[in-house]
Amino acid sequence: MAGAPDSAADLFVYGASPAGIGAAVTAAREGLRVLVAEPLGQLGGMLTGGLSRTDLGRPETVGGVFREFLTRVVAHYAARYGPDSSQVKDSLGGQRFEPRVAHAVLSDLLAEAGAEVRLRREIVTAEVEGRRLRAVTLRNGVGEERVRAKAFVDASYEGDLLAAACVPYRAGREARQEYGEEHAGHLFWDPKTSRPSPRSTGEADARVQAYCLRLCVTDDPANRRVLAPPPSYDPARFSLLQAYLDAAPRQLKDVLLLGPLPNRKWDVNNWGFCWQSMDFIEGNAGYVEGDWPARRRIVRAHRDYQYGLLYYLQHDRGVPADLRAEASRYGLCADEFPENDGWPEQLYVREARRMLGRYVFTEHDARRDSRKPDAVVVGSYPLDSHATQWYRLGQPDPASEGFFMCSTRPYEIPFRALLPADLDNLLVPVCLSATHAGYGTLRMEPVMMNLGMACGLAAALSPGGPANVDVAELQRELAGRGQVVRV
């Protein structure tokens, strides 16, 4: 836009997610001028946003900058509490951490590398000329600014940069027959057989898996926020949870997935087999294509839903007294997200846009066709999707529609899946080219951060555009920096 002040960089990264930080740190260490713009006021994405128990997969497949993050988490606890402390032990080699510790570690990585980060910057437009992205315009709260760069990385959870650059993408689920994927499309999961139920139709639709806010809670009275009555609280919206509690004796572990962290804290996640848990199923409608005011309203709706559910568990007389007492032990942490009353700003956007790039990663790549000539990262987490539609009372399946989990073998992720078909200087490590089923294993933070590392190094090795990088050289350089490239 005319009149917008200009900035210039060798590499522009949109999104201070783990992938964005992996790209920025790697490129800056190679001497590139790196500018990172983040639409929220929080850097680190889900690593600092409450996802504090790492979905690692097989540890031997995780190297690179994410392995460095894990090492630094342990070093932080050792320096603060001692190498033989309970905090070091509870961190489980860096895989379990408090959100504020993750923020400190990632902030140090960026500062040491010399990458500049600008928060609360929303993308407005992208300028494309031929096969190159030339510049982006950002909204900064008081006006607009324009950033020119030689190479770009879209590391946002939403894929807003690729959309602004008119890169083709998909949001929703492919039909089963499109790629021959067992877990594609409309699906009910049968945990007894670990297979899709015969009731699954495999039909395509526009749904994406449910979102939630990953919460950090404590049972330490000195650090625990007491849960006040939520505004506009309506206990009737938790009738499905009440029916679940009435169906059989339940403990808190049957409702919420609580993972222990250092310093008497827990990561609270959705429990997929509970009829109504932390995921606000169907609550993300409109998020993917929404503008930021609409998205913020959706985030607020998620917070209101989860706030109400926690309050219901602690106070409603329909909840058994022993379960109410167990739930009441926990509260949001006073020393986490203090600027937001203990709530993270980052919504767990498990899936949004998925680019249609030079290679589409499917569930077959994670289960059978595991080797790739242009591999840059190895993954190993199961195929995993949260529900897309609520459980309905009376249906024979115990899980909500869209939920599945299926084991994988270690697999290689091709560089081509990060590349748009028609742009040579844009890389996409989060909303990369994959089907809904295939994305279920790619979407974990260790994979994303190391895909970002591959993007940052590709930008450094190929000034003419990362699409033109010598892949064999990229693989050697990644391996030399500790990345696991081959299974």
Tell me about this structure.
The chain has 487 residues and is of the alpha+beta class. It has two domains: 6-170 and 351-380 and 411-480, FAD/NAD(P)-binding domain (3-Layer(bba) Sandwich), CATH 3.50.50; 215-340, no CATH class. 29% of the residues lie in helices and 18% in strands. The protein has 13 helices and 19 strands. The chain has helices spanning 18-29, 64-81, 86-90, 99-113, 160-164, 176-179, 239-247, 292-315, 321-328, 363-367, 436-442, 445-461, 471-480, and strands at residues 6-14, 34-38, 116-119, 122-129, 132-139, 144-154, 169-170, 189-190, 195-196, 215-218, 256-261, 265-270, 331-332, 354-355, 375-379, 383-385, 404-406, 411-414, 426-427. Strands 1, 2, 3, 4, 5, 6 and 19 form a seven-stranded mixed sheet that branches. It has a four-stranded antiparallel sheet with strand order 11-12-10-13, with no helix packed on it. A hairpin with a 2-residue loop joins strand 4 (122-129) and strand 5. Helix 2 (64-81) crosses helix 4. The radius of gyration is 22 Å and the shape is globular. The N and C termini lie far apart (46 Å). 54% of the residues are buried.
Total tally of structural domains? 2
Mean pLDDT: 96
Q: What class would the helix/strand composition place it in? A: alpha+beta
Question: How far is the first residue's CA from the last residue's CA?
Answer: 46 Å
Broad CATH class of the largest domain: Alpha Beta
What is the share of helical residues?
25-40%
Indicate the CATH topology of the largest domain.
FAD/NAD(P)-binding domain
Spans with pLDDT under 50 lasting ≥5 residues?
A: none
| Fourth-tier CATH superfamily name of the largest domain | FAD/NAD(P)-binding domain
From the spread of the alpha carbons, the general shape counts as globular
- The overall strand count is 19
